[in-house]
Each structure stands twice: as structure tokens, then as C-alpha cells.
Amino acid sequence: MKKNELLIELEHVAAHKITPQQAANKLSKTDFTELNYAKIDTAREKRTGYSEVIYGAGKTAAQICGIASVMKKQGQSILVTRVIPEKAVKIQKEFPDLDYDAVAQIMTLNPKKSVHIGEIAIVTAGTSDIKVAEEAAITAEFFGNHVTRIYDVGVAGIQRLFAKLEVIRQAKVIIVIAGMEGALVSVIGGLVNQPVIGVPTSIGYGSHLNGLTPLLGMLNSCSAGISVVNIDNGFGAAFNASMINHLAVKEKIK
């Protein structure tokens, strides 16, 4: 319970509007719903502005349906990440209104139909990075952001990047997704004045080490203004970008 809510309850007790026991009952609320395999944080959106997200990998279809059922009953938006097609088929038998994107492997239900604001550019080095990019793009759109997709503009043919540079510069925050050596993040970081979020991917040959090489390359970038999320973490990049984008729009409105 937030501090101002606590004060309100205490004031109600002082004014004899409620009893101390009633106040104690309200203060003792856990703000989560417990299933035998999960504790669903039903107060997260009120607390942070973003509802709980279901990480689908490692959960059974039945478990995902159980969590989604609780969230849906409470009118919450539902975002499920890392859902393989076979599992999605089982889930949609119980929840046909959950949309599924097979590329991003994401399921969504957004009854609020949030207005999309600002601009997030999602840039990939290669076509092989699109799976991670679509996880980021759909997540960002789900959280109410305009998204511009700019795919396959890696440093091996850098003229492709320069052709899209003005479009990229119009965004308030840029997500750059790259495998191999991850050089695209440093290049873009040195060409723009927006925050850049780097996403290393597990795309590449032997010494690429399943994403470790681009991860370390991005962390060691000499371009300022770059932050880096974990390997293949399109969701994490989009979440961070959404927070930056919404803050930027709020400041502009002021």
C-alpha cells in the first residue's frame, strides 16, 4: 500500500469512519493472487504503471491459462512471452481471444487498446535478428508506443544504414539488435543523440559464442549513451525503451 493510501486509512480511523480492525484488514492485503504454482502480482500496474508479464518458457499451457484467467478476470492486459507454437495452440483452445505472433512467439490480450505515443526505432543488423526484434516491437506496441522497424542494415553493407539514418533519428529511443560481432550498436551510437539500447543476439559463427562476443563488444563500446540488455532479450529492451519514451513524451507535454 502506498504512503498516501496509508495516511488516508489512518485519517478514516481518526474520524471514526472505519474501525481499527477494518483499517488493519485493508493494510494486511497482499495485493497478489495465489495459485498453487504462482503468485500473481495484481497490484503491479498500480505500483509501476506496467502490469505483470507472463514468461511462457518453462510453464505449461495449463499454468499459463491459469495465470491469464486471473489477470483477465481483473481486467488486466495480458502479455505472454516465449511461447512456442505447439504451446500456443493449446492455450488458444481455452483463450481464443489471445492473439499469437509466431515470429515473436508472443501472445497478447489488451482490452484497454492503449493509445500509441512517441517513437521507438528498432534496428537490426541482419534478417536473422528479426525474431528478437519482433519480440521487442510487439512488446513496445503492447505498452503503447509507436514503433518503426528498420531491418537488415548491418555494417557489412553500411550504405543501407545511411539510407535510413534520418528515419532512425526521428525516434526518441533506439533499440539496436545485432549478432556476429555486434558492431552496429557502436556505429549507430556515434551517429545519433538519442539513448541507444543494444541487444546482442545468439546469431553467429563459432567464436561468436552464442551471443557472448556481441554482448562483450556492446558493453565495451566507445560510443557514449549506450546501454545493453542480455542476449536475445528483446522484451527487456522494449520495456526499458517504453519507459524512456513515455518519460520523453511527458516532458514534452510539460
From TrEMBL:
<dbReference type="InterPro" id="IPR039476">
    <property type="entry name" value="P2CMN_synthase_LarB"/>
</dbReference>
<dbReference type="GO" id="GO:0006189">
    <property type="term" value="P:'de novo' IMP biosynthetic process"/>
</dbReference>
<dbReference type="GO" id="GO:0016787">
    <property type="term" value="F:hydrolase activity"/>
</dbReference>
<dbReference type="InterPro" id="IPR000031">
    <property type="entry name" value="PurE_dom"/>
</dbReference>
<protein>
    <submittedName>
        <fullName>NCAIR mutase (PurE)-related protein</fullName>
    </submittedName>
</protein>
<feature type="domain" description="PurE">
    <location>
        <begin position="118"/>
        <end position="250"/>
    </location>
</feature>
<dbReference type="Pfam" id="PF00731">
    <property type="entry name" value="AIRC"/>
</dbReference>
